[in-house]
Amino acid sequence: MLNRYPLWKYLLILLVFIVGVLYALPNLYPKDPAIQISAANSGASVGDSEMARVDQTLEQAGIAVKSSESANGTSLIRLENGSQQSAARDMVSKALGQGYTVALNLADSTPQWLQAIGAKPMNLGLDLRGGVHFLLEVDMDAALDQRLDVNASAMREALRGDGIRYRNNTTGDNAIRFTFANADDRSQARALLNRQYNEFSFANEDDAGPTLVMTLTDQAVTDIQDYAINQNLTTLRNRVNELGVSEPIVQRQGPNRIVVELPGVQDTAEAKRIVGATANLEFRLEASDSTSADQQQAFDFRNDAGRKAALERDVIITGDRVSSASTSFDDSGRPQVNINLDGPGGSRMNRATRANIGRNMAVLYIEHKTRTRTVTRDGEQVEERVPYTERGIISLATIQSALGNQFRITGLDSPTEARELSLLLRSGSLAAPIYFAQERTIGPSLGQQNIDRGVMSVIVGLVLVLAFMIVRYKGFGLIANLALTVNLTLLIAAMSILGATLTLPGIAGIVLTLGMAVDANVLVFERIREEMRSRSIQQAIHTGYERAFTAILDANITTLLVAVILFSIGTGPVKGFAVTLSLGILTSVFTGVMVSRALTNLVVGGKSLKKLWI
């Protein structure tokens, strides 16, 4: 019989619709503005007395509290008004003192029965949720200097291993210089190093004695700079993942810049401190009586002003060799960081400590920073960024036995410093220092305004399309409108299930999807009208859906290919638009062909009709 579906097709469509409704529902429950309270000491918790003080503080300030909850020593207070969130944090932080950390948060309000089936709302992008945008600039000169220092250290070790003596060693201007006592030693050193370091061009100088100058080639400079950018991208992504930010954006912009967008992050000071931290570690032996003056450097202790120690210039390993790091407390309750090294790092550490039992080994903490000063250029005062590096010893301990892949770092000031150091070591060190070229914050209120406008655009577009279809196609227009409603529900559900991020361009993609979805029904209905001139009503409906399917498929496949290309080559907002458009095309084909046909079959299928209102 024409225009009748088997029962299983109706049940399948009903099942898809029910699942779509369930997984789209969480988007009706927006996240609550909240403040999160935790103890600065990881072993402590927020007790009843502290919560009573918090409640009293907020009540006196006239800040309405929606609810409060505690779990794992941390308390979460949901607020009624998002505009009071920052004020509530400041007041609670002042009331509790330095022993507690108070941070802004967005608390999930999805009902438990929806969470039990894994339903969750869509992630919102930076322009909708608010958050922070950083434009970071990578110091390429520092990347080259760091690589030169590492190579120079390895070259000194190679020369000592072959018994070739040198007088002096310096780095700078993309070159490493060794000065020797005579030309024969220089020739031997050149023959040895030329075999191992093909990224350098070698030349002899005799101005200050027999000197071997090794200059990085242009290709080597380019490779080092590309490595610095790519390594920093990887490190920043790891750090952002440690922050627990949903759907962050970390991408390269131009030759030496990186864009970082953190949606939902409101504690910008913490984000900036973690993202921009350039801390690294170096493990060095303390200089002995036999260490020459040019092979040692003096450093201050970070937590003991006025105390110094002389360390050897050669580095055993750096923080790059750390594979994992965690925090704990020693027997005296002082914070420490537990270190695991990778294979090569563990081997180097074992060789160095096995041969130097009884000597002291230092952990040197290195941090690259900048200070801003005002200078006059061309008669105008401008701000100039001056980079500088702070180096300090955080631990100096005697090597009791040979160390391997696992050991610990002590001598840290606080649990917070230990947590941040372990985070930086886990995520990897930066290959070159980075500086904040631009910082932009989007507040939650502006994000809510964007959401309201975006929702209004979808509603207006939907209402206009619904009205047009009813006026143009009457009863069949109502069928198309029902199919369109199902399409919007399925699209929202698909984005929620896949964890896609909704941005303003994504909302534009939804509006475009509504227009494309109704286009499929227009093709079908116009084809039915045409077929009714030469066929019966039931045959016209059947032929209209069958023959319009090819045109619908062709049009949507073409658009889907464009969306895939946009996703593959686009970045940020363009990707968000492409994802929404791609999912919308898939749901549009399903609802325009399957759902619309099922509704038509239920209404007119198998009936004897003399006239069709279309």
From TrEMBL:
How the protein sits in the membrane?
Multi-pass membrane protein
TM helices/strands, residue ranges: 7-25, 454-471, 478-500, 506-528, 548-569, 581-604
Tell me if Aminoacyl-tRNA synthetase is a UniProt keyword of this record. no
GO biological process, alphabetically ordered: intracellular protein transmembrane transport; protein targeting; protein transport by the Sec complex
Q: Which residues form a coiled coil?
A: none
Q: Give yes or no: UniProt keyword Transport.
A: yes
Q: Name one GO molecular function term.
A: protein-transporting ATPase activity
User: Its biological function?
Assistant: Part of the Sec protein translocase complex. Interacts with the SecYEG preprotein conducting channel. SecDF uses the proton motive force (PMF) to complete protein translocation after the ATP-dependent function of SecA.
Family, per the entry? Belongs to the SecD/SecF family. SecD subfamily.
Identification of the protein by name: Protein translocase subunit SecD
Q: Which organism is it from?
A: Kushneria phyllosphaerae
Encoding gene (name): mzrA
